[in-house]
Amino acid sequence: MPAGLLRVVTAGSVDDGKSTLVGRLLHDAKAVLADQMTAVEAASERRGYEGADLALLVDGLRAEREQGITIDVAYRYFATPRRTFILADTPGHVQYTRNTVTGASTADVAVILVDARSGVVEQTKRHLAVASLLRVSEIVLAVNKMDLVEFSEAVFDAIVTDFAAAAASLGVAHFTPIPVAALSGANIVTKSQQLDWYGGQALLEFLETVEPAVRADLPARFPVQVVLRPRTAEHPDYRGYAGRVEAGVLHRGDKVQVLPSGRVSVVAGIDTPTGELSEAPAGRSVTVRLEDDVDIARGDLIVVDGVPAPVVTRELQATVCWLTDRPLRAADRYQLRHTTRDVRAIVDLVESKLDIATVTPVPASELNLNDIGTVRIRLAEPIIVDPYALNRSTGAFLLVDENTGATVAAGLVR
């Protein structure tokens, strides 16, 4: 039986019913406290609704409640007897695509909603492209508002066909289509008799049983966040390197290499606030001690020998999602933030951008707000990367405006 944490992101076009679906999921899964439900019922009554508007369970900002839209990424934590979830409800408006990138960047499953009346639209393809580029391992096509098309199997099949064509163009080999009606709860937590032609699982059952693909075979990657040298009477000679294991498993006794210097040593110990470990898996924050006195600084990467090896480079070809109004052009300069390392960067070339209508790359000389494209970047100092397809941490970076400190792009190493 699946166990542990599952990260889910919901995305879709405006008014496809994302917040209602999430609210219904929380309500029917018994994950709503009584006082929360009372507040939602009171707010719904003030608006003149006949029943409780479950979308208000996730539309937390005052501006969202007043306008009836989702602006921010709304995170909700809940659990069932089978699994624990972190669910991110992201905005539908095109100008908030950057929020969708944020929600999808750590997700195991992406639930992309489509209104059964309007089918696959441009924003559907944009969200599918984001989920594909960010390597979300499981994609669900939730065809919502099936009650408004009389629960028609033909309508559902036509939408699945259109979505499959877009998925194939983006190299998405597999997705799971589920017909739902979030307002009434059909196929959200339990199967609906009105959808008796559908032979698959209800949405929650799928989320409880899905096993996302996990790359457990990568060699260990440990970006150094801070060097610890307390120099106290109790620890006069202590030298440790604190950070989080971003891939693989780091063991005491492992022969490691420090990049970019190339120095070699052996892991002497792995420390935590609660004691020493013999090994640290990906996602664990620890302090590593080495047998040799090696010159290590923040931004260095400690790796275990193995295949594939990381690449030390000052040039990148990358896919970026552009997140600001000012266009990205060749010769633009930014700060590139990768794991725990910041370096200055210059854009050598904008190669192409994704045409959302056809879901294919087309030549381009610049990227505008919400564009997804391929660029070449040159760096002032070397960084250590893996392709994003192999490692979502060491294969990702941000571009930051040096003058304002604003994040202008999310990038994926190709």
Query: Helix- and strand-based class?
Result: alpha+beta
Distance between the termini: 35 Å
Shape: globular
| Main sheet properties | 6 strands, mixed
| CATH topology name of the largest domain | Rossmann fold
CATH homologous superfamily identity of the largest domain: P-loop containing nucleotide triphosphate hydrolases
What is the number of domains? Answer: 3
Widest beta sheet: strand line-up: 2-3-1-4-5-6
Report helical residue fraction.
10-25%
Tally of separate helices: 7
Rg, please? Answer: 23 Å
Overall pLDDT, averaged?
86
- Tell me, what is the CATH class of the largest domain? Alpha Beta
The tally of strands reads: 24
Spans of at least 5 consecutive residues whose pLDDT stays below 50 are 61-71
